[in-house]
Amino acid sequence: MSAMHYRALLLLLSLIPFPMPGKAIINVDQAIVDQGDDKASHTAHASIDGAQGNTNKNSIKADWLSRLPHGPHAEFFYAEYAYGKSSGHVDTNRLFAHLRHRTHIDERWAWEVFTQYGRDPFARLSLRVLAGGGLRWSMIERRESSAIYLGIGAFHEWERLSVQAGTSDRRESQPRLSSYLVAEHRFNAQVHANAIAYYQPALRDAADYRLLAQGTLNIRMNDHLDWQLQLDYSFDARPPQTVRPSDLRYSAGLAFHF
To answer: Could you tell me what percent of the chain has a pLDDT over 70?
Structure first.
């Protein structure tokens, strides 16, 4: 690895902050990023954290991704589960699943349809279901080391919030704009990274919007195993009552490919 690549790697690592509590809005980068090949692949990723003594805390995060390309078409399935306890009390119990279909129209354009399910009781989210679709444009055509994509479309979401004392809000079903920007870069055969940003305003009220971003760094250990670092940030301009508007967290773990 050259000195330039080491500096880039250190810069990415330096961006990892201390975790902050908040609501969870899950990014779907694993189902967005295109691997640029025609082979079916599956990836399992897991991370475990714990502490005992003055602080008693343990948590686990696991996710699964399947990519199934066939000709100009491809299906992507991504699922994630996170569970954690602090001082003997459960403080994380999050579940998320996303299914996406993509059809390439030509070398630069593709259309997509998707649906997803999620729940996060500690963010008062009993249920979120959505379905939608749109177009994907390759702004920079995939080359050996880099690629940039822009996605634009819409989806309709249905949300149900848990009722808590002192709260009066209720979520309604509504349509939202679906937009994302993806940038990928491969430093060398062992190290590659991607960054994704989302903007999701409600079509009925532009002041009700969500911003989401994720950065992922993969370090190849062998043909089937990666060391993976992830950084997530999300912001909800109108979060549920008692829930903070922003969420920032990171994870590190192993990803197994087959």
So the answer is: 83
